[in-house]
Amino acid sequence: MNEVALAPEPSHDTQTTGAAFAFSEQDLAGYCAIWFQEYHSWFPILHEPTILETCGQCPGRSDTPVPLVLKAIAAVVVPTQPRPQRVSAAQRQRWLLDLEDDILSAATHDLSLQSLQALLILSIRVFGTGRMAQFYNLMALCKCVSTQLGLRDLVYYHCANYGVPSAIPPRMLFIPFTVVEREEKTRAFWAAEALDSISTLGAAWHLSVPRPEPAATAPCDEETWCFPESVLAAYRFGDAEAPSPFSLFVSLATSELWHVHRFLQQSYDSKAATDTERRQADCDAVYQHLMSWKADFERVLAVNAPPFVDLFSTGYYTDQHPNSILIHCTIHSAVVSLYQRFIVLPDTTSYGGQSWACAADRCIASCESMVALIRTVPDATLESINPYVIFCVFIAARFYAVHARTTGSSTQDKLYLLIYPLTVAAKRWPLARQLKAVLDTAVTESRGEHVGDHPLPVEFYDLQYLLWDIHDALRKWAQAKDQSLTHLESALTA
């Protein structure tokens, strides 16, 4: 973890005005260094040489506006840095919320690539704090801005309809002037699409996931992307022999998960045998398609792409790339989401439902694969991991908890192995802290011990509900439990 210990200080009385913190040049440089060291590897939407140059041009004076992208980086990085002694936790929290509002307001009033990048970066903080409703609204805004900027036309149609009559609807837009601008727009488009896809997997209300487009322009590889503009100008985009970790993640999220989305959004009658058989056959087809992509992915990383052989490993190595971890966790959680509704709990069998042994086996296999993967990841990586991995881990852990409670199977040890990464990630992400509290309570309930006035919502134990459906109930449960603990501590210290 980066040792830079920077934190902004209030420019005047934030207790009464909620005024913004003053960013010094040292602050901005420190935040950018932390961003590119700890976050950029799994969210590479910014061009590092360009951002560092922009950062160096900021004088750090209160009368000079800070670029929106740098503000967004600060919003993500500041909560992880030591807090100045004369600034209370409540003051800094209020400032962070004010900063979020400032970024949102500025982005909605300025239609630009920089606004979209700032919104995408801000979405990391919003997701990591567990504010899912706000995150989904933010994703909708990102996709709207992306559409207005013509990024889909750039990626899908290669600017063929920019400013000229064409067979497809023309757009009065300018072709990007530089290769950096074009690549940044490509990456911003795919980041919005990928986040929207993985964050709504299994949500029946999300019906706008676009059909995959094979001819779309993919992001370039990360080794090329780190070069300055002068070098990139001579690079022929699209000629890379090996896909990048980010482009592989984009492929999974926007192409392969489309089939999972389409399947999970279909309704069926679990009481009708013919409908259930058709549903199971369709589920198997989606599963086999996903496993075929996974096999190709592992083959590419292990055989066909020597620069990236460390991105995937079957042994206990610690140098795995964050996007490789994200890809595997996404696949495993997608399999659990595919099959968990076919595991009928005992109290529903009277309504005609029947269990499907294959469903449980594949869910358990995916959970075990996730355990094996997570155990190889060092704590430093877990702490700064993409917060979506937290959701993936929780999906597997929840399945273990429910399956053990229902069948009496001995999966508690593996459940603990999935609680541990949430413990580490909780140092940075409130979402991990919230979901860990849920799992701790599930373990307590599984022992038959008293959990006080706040038992888990019954929906937690119903696998007909996917995580996206019950998260709001879990969030409210966690808030109620925290309030009770606060009141208890106040009473004890009174």
From TrEMBL:
Keyword Nucleotide-binding included in the entry's annotation: no
| Keyword set, alphabetical order | Metal-binding, Nucleus, Transcription, Transcription regulation
Every copy of the Xylanolytic transcriptional activator regulatory domain together lies at 35-192
Give the location in the cell: Nucleus
A single Gene Ontology biological process assigned to it is:
DNA-templated transcription
The domain of life for this entry's organism is: Eukaryota
Supply one GO molecular-function term: DNA binding
- Annotated GO CC locations: nucleus
Task: Reply yes or no: does the keyword Nuclease apply.
Answer: no
Q: What is this protein called?
A: Xylanolytic transcriptional activator regulatory domain-containing protein
**Which species is this record about?**
Purpureocillium takamizusanense
